[in-house]
Amino acid sequence: MRTKKFWFSLVAVMMLICVGCSTPEEKKAKHYKKGMELVKENKLDEAIIEFKNAIQIDPKYVDGHHQLGLAYLKKGNLRGAFGELSRTVELNPELYDAQVKLGSLYMLGRKLPEAKEKAALVLKKEPDNIDALYLSGNVLLAEGKPEETIATLNRIIALDPKQSPAYILLARIYAGQKKLDLAEEYLKKAIAADEKTPSPRLTLADFYGRTGRIDQAEAELKKVISLDPRKADYYIILGNFYMATRRPAEAEGIFKKAAQLDPKDPKPFMVLGRYYALQNKFEPALAGFKKALEAKPDDLNIKNAVATLYYDFEKMKEAEKEVEEILDENEKNTPARVLKGRIYLKKRDFSNALTEFDGILKEEPRLQDVRYYKAMSHIGKGETQLAKNSLVEVVKQAPGLTKARLLLAEIYLGERAVDAAQKELQEAIKIQPGNLQARLLLGDSYMGQKKVKEAQREYQEAKKIAPRSPAGYYRLGIAYRVMGQNNPALNEFEAALKLNPHLIDALSQVVSIHVAGRDIKKAIARSEEQLKRSPNNPFIYNLLGNLHLADQKVDLAEASYKKAISISPDFVSPYMALGRLYAATKRTDKAMAEFQEAIKRNPKAITARMSLGVLYESQGKYDAAQKEYREILKTNPKFAPAANNLAWNLAEHGGNIDEALTLAQLAKEQNPEDPGVADTLGWIYYKKNVVDRAIREFEDAIKKIPNHPTIHYHLGMAYLKKGDKAKAKAELNRALSISRAFPEAKEAEKALAGIK
Fold first, then answer.
1. d(Cα 610, Cα 592) in Å, to the nearest integer?
2. pTM greater than 0.70 (yes/no)
């Protein structure tokens, strides 16, 4: 009896359990159904999970693979779509929608034979399959067979006259053949075939824009808005059109309208923010991005836009704070990590920048933008070869990344590999004909080769690309000057100054042309005229000082230099000019004060330290002079004039003769043609009793400046030390015949008197 009761209890329990059970087939169907519902709601990520669950239950589930492939396609995951659609047709070759979609992916990968095969396979079974006909038409067009493409598209229209994409594709073919009337006709047919779809009208608007019919383009874009006045995207398209046609005020108005449609839609606010950023208006740009963030507070893309805005407007602390907040939320967020590296770059912290970029590339090696920034970090560290290696890889993997080609070209130009630089620049121009920097760099490279006509061609293109930029005009002016054509050069420089009245380089060229024509008064008048357009410009006052000095108006020159300093106390050039002026007029203490002020403003001002060192020597303050020369060599260890002067100073005034020799040899290595350096080195050899080498140096110096009494005196003394009295006597007499007032004249007379 107990057994029977137990049995019935067990059956009851099993029945309860099985109420919640379902078969694998039912589970699969449930996931598939849920996935399809999610696709309709455009919740693709969730749909993908459901389709994957269905396939996991049944790996050969054709519909599951098919819909997963389509979901990947909508998401833009082409690799995933290709894999799933390939599996679909492998399981069911007669699923023609999958075959056509797979063919379209082959088209995107430029694999025309495979795409053609898919189209033929479907059309063999279903000759009127419109999707397969489109695929076939696109293959034919890619193969350069427009007439066969036209026939295929006309067949589609015959099957379904409402196929607006066929009319649009026909219009594009006719436009490519310069049959613009036919192109317009077919675009209008596309609209008639599907009046409620925006695509035909947008294509017609683009056609009108490209053919210069701006008013008609605008009218079509407004009609698109009328199709759905609540859709922000159409307003944004119209706003972008206004920007492209240089109507920023109208663009701003339409972007604002887009933002008013739905406060919960972040996109129009982002567009408005970017618009203001382009207009260099930080506060309204930030306000736009903040509004977008209110609409979608957790969107890291918007937060990255805010961080980038701070970066672009040189607000590094705020940019860093935003980046750190993003990385606190998601430490793997790539845009924030890239921006963090760029901030390091901006701060010249190249080591940390490299560490950041290397970390990103380790995880995402295909990010060529990051490899570009890595190259910039190497350049910052002086690792040019590593930068070049990185950029070569970027150009190989991403040929269209023009900024990488430009940076690589600059490296090649620095290495004087002009042909390699020009190749990169020409490729950049093929990809982006309107790239101003590429045109200017290519022109500059031609100038370096003295190919002035080729340079002029590039500078003319630069003017067409950026008629409001002075760069093309200025460089073209330089090219004309090189050819000796001062009048057209003057016109170009004046055009550059009209665009930018503060452009001192252009004014300097204008002035130089007048000075070359021996009309210094006109040069001065032109500079004074420019001051009216660019008042309180310290560079113009400094230029005026130079002109007054050339005109021998010392007081006016002095006043101009002082005015430049009063406007811009950190501008070093007028201090230097005043120092030279005072030195030339024997006001040594004032000269030294100006050079010292220049050094205070720029401790690495080599010319100021050299001038000060020479003045100290003239006063017999040799220790002070040595200090200045040593400071120069800390800044630039190979600066020959400082090495030469320090070597002479040490040799003549009780310094370490071996150190003097090392310094003189360095100077000789850097400036082998300088007779003054040869004389210094020769005199140190003389003092070290290396007489033959001393003689060689003096003879080398005399070949370059035959009438320098000091060098003849030094050579005479070297011959005397060697014991060649005849040559010694001849050189000493030669020195005194040139001048009896040179510093060593008395020593020369004394040496001559001692020769028997």
1. 11
2. yes
